[in-house]
TrEMBL record:
GO terms for molecular function: DNA binding; DNA-binding transcription factor activity. Residues 1-134 form the HTH marR-type domain. This is Winged helix-turn-helix transcriptional regulator. Signal peptide: none annotated. It comes from the Bacteria. It holds the Pfam family MarR_2. SUPFAM superfamilies: Winged helix' DNA-binding domain (SSF46785). Keywords: DNA-binding, Transcription, Transcription regulation.
Length: 146
């Protein structure tokens, strides 16, 4: 197996575990994308486009999730003052009550995994991934188009 395949296999294993964790906290991946983005945003707000771009989700998917959870009373939508086509999303108090336990559980699982892995190994892992990412990006950037 070549190194690219090995890297891909590790990435898939981690992503599968993350998806299982998301299901275990009670959300689909797409729902989690919205709620995670809202919960961890600096001001508790985001745009539908931001969720779509950051999580590589179709805009229509994000729109449908927002529609569903707006009807449930978990989120509110407002028009952006900068761009009338853009919708600002924020959690309602009901939404915060529903989402927070899942986010706390998700954070604890992640912190526990990194704690068991260790601070030094985590720092080393991130440094190596950062270095490899830079090298790979430069290789791709220097690639001649076909």
């Amino acid at each position: 197996m070549n190194k690219f395949d090995i890297l891909g296999n590790y990435n898939t294993q981690i992503e599968d575990s993350i998806e299982t964790c998301i299901k275990n906290v009670g959300f689909s991946y797409n729902e989690f994308a919205l709620f995670y983005t809202l919960y961890f945003s600096d001001d508790g707000k985001c745009t539908q486009k931001q969720v779509s771009d950051e999580w590589f989700l179709p805009k229509q998917t994000v729109f449908n999730i927002c529609k569903e959870y707006r009807e449930k009373g978990w989120i509110e939508l407002a028009q952006s003052s900068k761009d009338k086509r853009e919708r600002i999303v924020c959690l309602t108090s009901l939404g915060k009550t529903q989402v927070e336990p899942a986010m706390v559980k998700f954070i604890k699982i992640n912190e526990s995994a990194f704690s068991k892995f260790g601070e030094k190994k985590s720092a080393r892992l991130f440094a190596l991934l950062d270095e490899f990412s830079d090298i790979y990006k430069k290789q791709v950037d220097n690639m001649s188009p076909q």
